[in-house]
Amino acid sequence: MTDPSADTSRSHAARTGRGSMVDIAYAALKDEILSTRMLPGFRATEPEVADRLGMSRTPVREALIRLQADGLVELIPRRGMRVLPVSAEDMNDIYEILTALEPHAAAELALRRPGLEVLAPLVRATEDMERALERPDLEAWAEADDRFHRALLELHGNARLTAIAGALFDQAHRARMITLRLREVPHRSTAEHRDILQALRDGDAERVRRIFQTHRERAARELLQLLERLGLPQF
After folding, report:
1. Domain span at 136
2. 10 Å Cβ neighbour count for 64?
3. How far apart are CA 191 and CA 129, in angstroms?
């Protein structure tokens, strides 16, 4: 006689396993895209993507559906997937939203007067940025910069704001990686992160808001000017 509870356990394990494989495929493909190992315009069939990851097609298909919802890929019926490009107009819109959201979140966090223990993720990210420039290792700097911005919103604690900004961070990070070696070494940006961190420690909401807004506005201006100079309406 079959034990119903055993069937339920096996069914749960199968669902959990599949879910886990989808998460692994999603994370792996997202990393390929954000690191620009899969460049904008990259095309592949579903079997080719599955072979690239060494996985079956089912979790890969579900992962690609999630990435399409993130705005990172386009699924083409019977032809597979294409990594979507980012346009200068996209980046202008993205930075406009981030310039509104992040300074507000940072100012609210500052009002709580967070101590060093709370701010530890931001301290580590800032120190990692500084060490990366000493080597220099621009890829490591970009990873630490992205980590700083994500950690700040996590500390702010608004899950919906974090989710909205997280999708925009993905696009901004991809643009940063593509143009990383075409821009000046980011010493000023790193110093601004240190200033933001100090203003948070001081509980100075207006100062952190001002620094953060200037930081985002300058980054947007530099990127858009670079794209215009290079004649890259999309990349």
Report:
1. 88-230
2. 24
3. 10
Domain count, the chain: 2
Choose the final residue of a domain: 83, 99, 125: 83
- Name the token pair of 7: 């069937």
Long-range Cβ pairs for the range 54-59 (8 Å, 24+): 55/21, 55/24, 55/25, 56/21, 58/18, 58/21, 59/18, 59/21, 59/22, 59/24, 59/25
Distance CA 143, CA 173 (A): 8
Residue 11 located in a structural domain: yes
pLDDT in tens, the chain (235 residues): 444 433 433 333 334 455 699 999 999 999 999 888 898 899 999 999 999 999 999 999 999 999 999 889 999 988 899 999 888 898 999 999 999 999 999 999 999 999 999 999 999 999 999 999 999 999 999 999 999 999 999 999 999 999 999 889 988 888 888 888 888 899 999 999 999 999 999 999 999 999 999 999 999 999 999 888 887 677 7
* 50 touches 60 (CB < 8 A): yes
Rounded CA separation 41/61 (Å)? 19
Task: Give every CB contact of residue 42 below 8 A, 6+ residues apart in sequence.
Answer: 82, 83
Residue 235 lies in a domain: no
Q: Do residues 98 and 188 share a domain?
A: yes
Whether the predicted model's global pTM rises above the 0.90 cut:
no
Cα–Cα distance between 223 and 56 in angstroms, integer? 39
140 and 45 within one domain: no
CATH number at residue 95: 1.20.120.530
